[in-house]
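Section: protein folds

Sequence with per-residue tokens
===
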Amino acid sequence: MDADEYEAGGTDSSELERLLFGEKALRAVLEGLPDATVATGRDGRIVFVNAHAETLFGYDPGELVGRPVQVLWPEAVRARYTRNMELYFATEHPLRFTIRADGLRRDGSEFVGEMSWGIVETEAGPLLLAIGRDMTTYREAMARLQRQSRQQAAIAALGGRALSGADVGDLAVEAVDRMRETLALEYVVVRRGDEVLAGWGGDSEDLTTFEIASGDEVFGEICVEGDLGLDEESFLRAMANVLATAFGRLRGDERMRHEALHDPLTGLANRALCRERLIHALARTSRDDGAACVLFIDLDDFKAVNDLYGHAAGDALLIALARRLVATVRPADTVARLGGDEFVVVCEDIDEHTAIALGHRLTEALHEPLDVDGIEHRLSASIGIALGAAGRQDPDALLADADAAAYRAKAEGRGRVEVFDTRLRRHARERLRTAAALERALSLGQLRLAFQPIVALADRTVIGHEALLRWDSPGGVMSAPADFIGVAEESALIVEIGAWTLMQACRESASAFGRAEDGPAVWVNLSPRQLAQPDLPTVVADALDASGLPPGRLRLELQERVLQGAPKTARANVAALRELGVGLVLDDFGTGYSSLRDLPVRAVKIDRSFVAALGTSPGDAAIVAAIVSLASALGIAAVAEGVEDEEQAAQLLALGCPYAQGYLFGAPGPRITSEP
């Protein structure tokens, strides 16, 4: 029976009047209750409602009285509630309890309430009294709290896994699952950059996007379609923040790995990644027919760029050079920077002919002009090639072989390509043994100085001595300077050896001739690497202070080619040494080209090759005469090297050369003497 049918039925007026008899008294009691109150007679008609009930169900005052109570119940529960009502009236001891109740408003909307039911005895007869309230807001609030609790738990769990280093792909899948559990979504996707990490649902165009970001750095996004309120948006933003933590950690790991494996200046592979790629290339040789290959690129005289234009310009040139190298090699090849001006190319599946062709292509590319900050640079490089065939698994040895080949290429004239062979391997091993032995010799005191006199040709008086380095091995065999000076220069031992030589030479000279200003000078050779050391003036000053030798009695010999286009540090050192009062000597003069007018030197040494040709080569005699004349005009002393017989001495004297040095006047000896 529906509400209309209940409307059509009824009781006689005397019963209704009897039921309504106590309305005023009952209303006075129930009207002030804070909850909605409805009283119903045994016939199911409403005999009383308070104002809260009328408001709750959407009726005007007095409109519900006399109507069947079923009008307040939804269709789905109406029959069950009617049976329950009849049960309440039939029970001898009426039940009183609170239950969940569904209500129907006048406008047809339904709500969920909490209702207390019970039979109340009145003078007019028993009444079914229902007191309750709309629990919709409460239930929604509780549902919201439960939903928020689940969301917070999801955020906490996901955050913990993110901080523990879980895989970002797994985290994205878990995030999608959590969003589906707690939100009413039709579509969700998690992206990192352009990569989709996880998603659910069909494609959609009406999406709401939440950035996965930390500060100004955006890692990806969460895109969803669904019914979103403020709580849902807050949850999705929190989810994005958790993923940002994981993505940020991954970005940091990737950045750290990139920095650990790449050169910070050029972005090329560094030594560690180069070695890794070389190991991989060598492993392939055992499976495939091709060989692994290393091309070691050693730039020629790049240090001069740094000193002439500054390190910033040098760095900019290295960056431009790195781009050119990458553009020149094959796509699968790895270009690495080992440091300074040394680069390496690692190739897989290559033969010797192709490797040599690549080497020549690289030298041509390097020689092409490079314009950096308006300055045009033309570079050259010595390139060494080493091939690793099947069965060879030592990447460090292959790199060392390529380095040795590059060293040989540089020694053969620079700008060349050299392929490593067994001869070079023996030479490289010998250089390593020599460097190690030389370092031991320095610490064990096996180095010594020999002094060769420099005389005035007119009367053969000794005006100074050149300090020459000697190395006596434990077996009593003396090593020639040519056997170890080059190795010392290459390994940087020359700096320590040079400082020792300066100190010893100054002490020997002061001991032999005293500390007077006008005594014979001692002549000491400076290597190119020593001249480039920023602390050279300090090293020289310390040697003079410790020995008591006057600065005017020290001559430092510099090779002519070192001063040509000398870097800034070397030029600054030359100026500082002159300020110190030390005399500078240009060694092997005539083998290159220098403007003596621009060089702060006190003497030049005429190369022994010109002296040896005197008497047989008119051209060499003319060169000697020109050097002597130029030096005299500039107030610079000229010293002829390598004088071995009286005929050479006589010719030099006739040409006006004032000083000479050579075996004619004395072989290098262990002590400084005033006798030739």
